[in-house]
Amino acid sequence: MMLRKLAATLAAVAVTVGLAVTLSLISPLRTPPAETVELVRATKLACATAGRVLGLGEGEIVSAPLDGGDATSGTGQVDAATQGPSTLSAAAPLVGGVLAEQPTRSWTRCETPSPEGMVLVSDPGSTELVVVNSDANEAVIDLALLGADGEIAAVGARGIAVAPGVSRTVALSVLAPDGPVGVVYTASQGRVAVVARPVEGRTGATVGSAAAQTSQTVAGIPAGATSTTLLLSNPSEDRVEVGVEALGASSAYEPAPAAGISLAPRSTQRIDLGASLGGEASALRVTSSVAIGAAVQVSGADAVASSLVAGVPGERLGALVPQAEAVQVTNPGTAPAKVELTVAEAPVEVEVAAGTTTAVNVTAAGLTALRVEADVPVLASALSGGTVIPLDIVVEDESSAGVVVLDPSLR
Asked: Are 393 and 317 in contact (CB under 8 A)?
């Protein structure tokens, strides 16, 4: 019996040793090397108004009516006529807007839909909101109306439903007949793009959405502007002190009408800057301890009105502009900016001191891809037929590109 157990034990040991030796002689399975994959950075913008849609970017750009009509496409740029809201899309970063000629010439930036934002309106009695839902799901938004004397209680301002792929208008004259007013929109479901435009039979600039911020620079005030009005809206529950600096041709300074501004809680204030900007091409830097909304309304010598909101400074900006007359560059930083402006393949180099705005006259017949490249982030805009067209970030910094590493060794 003992001999049988010993023999069985020795046999088991022999099998185990043999198996171990055999496994040691087998070459390990080779693991494929890790692979880096760059994510596709698709962009889709909502264009809320009818007119001439102008888009600039890389690769194929498609302009499609929101109601499902025929789309227009182009490589690197697109120029399409639309009878209503539309979308701009591409598999890369792009910028765009809508140029309308009737009832007056105006520019409306195409926007990325958002679950929240703010629109500042000087005369709500003659204005309506256009709410665009370019997504495949229903959106539901609430509106808060911040007037000169505080928040306005308005029936019908909550639970506004917008079906997928459609737009809806909301008459501000019913909700807040007197101005100025800041309209804060918040989506409880989905996301939207919102602009304010004059009602039929009235003229004026279309107003785009603004994000509440503690520091923002509104660029694009043209030289020779005959009227400049600053709108400020405080969505918080606290009173806030606001600082305003003008970034002019040679220095930054405080315009006298904008000194000592104090915004009451949940209110909107209108400040007429008069002649305090001296007729210079300028920008306004607005700072506050809590996030507020800001917009600037300007009229030029030819009486064309534009409504401006803060942009995002960038090192590579662009826009597709018809008949460009001038380009102005604002440097909101603390170091000088070396800027190269390309108009119809002809580069112009300028240096913009910190805290100033430089205007460059250009002659560009027809439709032109304007591009600005700088060694520090700047803001830029073009003047076309008296209308201000902002230049936006058209090429992202490579460091912000989305990258995924596929490592087969990670299970």
From this structure: yes
